[in-house]
Design goal:
The structure is a homodimer of 291-residue chains. Chain A is built from eight helices and twelve strands. By secondary structure, the first copy, chain A, is α/β, with parallel strands linked by helices. The relative contact order of chain A is 0.17. At the A-B interface, strand 9, strand 10 and helix 6 of A face strand 9, strand 10 and helix 6 of B.
C-alpha cells in the first residue's frame, strides 16, 4: 500500500508517503500559515502521489467524533484562522480515498503502538513535551476519545516548593503545560532550555512535574508503556530523573516490575524518534485503508 | 439467563442472582473474614442456584490479566490472609461455568455503562468514595487494564490551603484517598462524615479534592460520563459543589456542553444506586456468558 501521512502541527506541517510497514519513503515540510495556504500545499503535495489512503494527525482541539456534524474540524484553537476549520472536509473534497483523522498525539501513540516503543502492546501513553504539552492515550487496543479527546497537558499538578514561576497557561496558569512546557522553562530561567546545562536545577523541576503527569496517568489508565517525546525530552538526562521521581512518588504502591527494576524499559523515548508524529499519521492512514 | 454476581468488598461480600437485563432477583451478604470462610460462603450460596455464569467484582489489587500465571488472584492487598489468594481458582474448582473477573470498581463502571447512568455510552469513569477511593475506567467500550488496572484513588492532588490534616495513606500520605476518603474526614474533624451538617466546611474541602480527581480524569481519558458513588457521595450536597469546582478548575478549557450547561447531567450519582457494585458483577457475568 501507498499511504499518505500529514503531521499537522501548529508551527509546521510535515507531509509524507509511506507504506503499511511504517517505512516513510519521502517527505516535505512547510510552516503552518493560513488554513487555505497550508492545507493547499498538502493537497498539492499528494495530488500526484496516488495514495491509497491518507492519515492526518492534527493539532487541536479537534472534533474526532464521526457522528458529530463538526467531525474533522479543528475546533476552538486560538490559532488565527483555524478556529472551526473543516480540515477533513477540505481533504475529502480533494481526495476520494479513505482518510484517517485524529489528534497529533493520538496519532503518535498509535504509531508507537504499531511500530515503535510500545509495539505489540495494547496500551500506551505518548506524551509530547515541547512548546506545549499533550498526550495520546491508547487503551485496550483503541485510541481514547470519549467526550472529546484527552487534553493531558492541562492536568493539575503540585507546585515544586522551590519554583517561584507563576506559570503561563492562559486558562489554568500553573497546570502541567503552564509550568513544564518549553516556554515555562524559558520564562523561568531567562534562556531557552536548550541553552541550560544538563546539570542545571531547571531539570530537577522539570522531572518533578513530568513525573507527576506520568504517575497520574499510570494510576488512571495503567498504560503498558509511557513514551515521552517532544523537544524538551531531547534533554536525555531527564529520563533517569523522571524514572526516579516516579518511583519516589508511587512509593511502591503499584506492584509491577515495570515500575521497579523494569522502569528503564517502561518510561522511554519514542521508538520512532522524531518520526513519531509522521509515522503516527501514517498509522492512521493504514487503519483507514483497512476499515 | 441466570447469572450469579459477587461484589467482593474488603468489608463485606454481596452475592446475588440476576439476569441479562440487570435485574437482581435475590441476594445475601456477609462480612469479609478469611478467604476460605468468605469464599466458602459464596460457593455454598451458588451451589444450588444453577447459574449459567458468575461475575466477580473484587477488592484489590487483583491480577486481571488472563495471560498471567496469577490471573484471578487478589495480589498485594494488606488485608490479612488475602495476599496472593487465588480467588478465581477457588471459584473455578467449584463451578464449571464461565466466570467474569475484574476489580470491584471496573465492574461498577461496566454496570453503569450497561444499565445505569452511562447506559449506551462507550466511555465512563466510576468513582467510589468511601472507606477508600477507587475508580473503574471504561474507554471506547472496554474496561481499562493495561499494566495492572487503574488505581485512581492514589493520584496526586493539590492540598487545599485551609486543610491542615496530613493525610492517612500509608504509601503517599496525602494522595486523593489519603485526604478525601471517609477516614480522612473522620480524622480531620473528629467525627464521622455522616454526623457533619450538610453546610459544614468539611464538604468544601471534599468537593475541592474530588473535583481535582474528576478534572484530571476528564483531561486524561475524556469520559462521556462521570459517576460518583460510595458512602461519602450519599452527601448529595457534594454534587453541585463538585460540579462548580470542576468548572472553576477547568475554566472553560474543554469545549463541550457536558462541561458547561450540561454538567448536571455529566457528573452524576450511580444510576444503579447502591446496587452499582452488585449489578456490575452481574454485568461481568453476562459478558463472561457471552464470550
Amino acid at each position: 500500500m501507498r499511504i499518505g501521512a500529514i503531521e499537522a502541527g501548529g508551527t509546521k506541517f510535515v507531509c509524507g508517503i509511506g507504506n503499511e510497514h511504517g517505512a516513510i519513503e519521502e517527505r516535505i515540510s512547510f510552516p503552518t500559515t493560513t488554513p487555505d495556504e497550508t492545507v493547499g500545499k498538502a493537497i498539492a503535495y499528494f495530488k500526484d502521489k496516488a495514495a491509497d489512503a491518507i492519515g492526518i494527525g492534527s493539532f487541536g482541539p479537534i472534533d474526532p467524533n464521526p457522528d458529530s456534524p463538526t467531525y474533522g474540524y479543528v475546533t476552538t484553537t486560538p490559532k488565527p484562522g483555524w478556529t472551526n476549520f473543516n480540515f477533513l472536509g477540505a481533504m475529502r473534497a480533494a481526495f476520494d480515498v479513505p482518510l484517517g483523522w485524529d489528534t497529533d498525539v493520538n496519532a503518535a501513540a498509535l504509531g508507537e503502538a504499531t511500530w515503535g516503543a510500545a509495539r505489540g502492546l495494547d496500551s500506551c501513553i505518548y506524551f509530547t513535551i515541547g512548546t506545549g504539552v499533550g498526550a495520546g492515550v491508547y487503551v485496550e487496543g483503541k485510541l481514547a476519545h470519549g467526550l472529546v479527546h484527552p487534553e493531558v497537558g492541562h492536568i493539575l499538578i503540585r507546585r515544586h516548593p522551590d519554583d517561584a514561576y507563576e506559570g503561563f497557561c492562559p486558562y489554568h496558569r500553573d497546570c502541567l503545560e503552564g509550568v513544564a512546557a518549553g516556554p515555562a522553562i524559558e520564562r523561568r530561567w531567562g534562556v531557552k532550555g536548550s541553552e541550560l546545562a544538563p546539570e542545571h536545577e531547571a531539570w530537577k523541576l522539570e522531572a518533578y512535574y513530568i513525573a507527576q503527569a506520568v504517575v497520574n496517568a499510570v494510576l488512571i489508565v495503567s498504560p503498558m508503556k509511557v513514551v515521552l517525546g517532544g523537544g524538551v525530552m531531547h534533554q536525555r538526562q531527564l529520563f533517569p530523573m523522571i524514572r526516579d521521581e516516579v518511583q519516589r512518588l508511587l512509593n511502591g504502591y503499584v506492584s509491577h516490575d515495570a515500575l521497579r527494576q523494569g522502569i528503564g524499559d517502561y518510561i522511554v523515548p519514542p521508538g520512532l524518534g522524531d518520526d513519531a508524529g509522521l509515522a503516527g499519521a501514517l498509522a492512521l492512514g493504514v487503519a483507514a485503508a483497512r476499515r
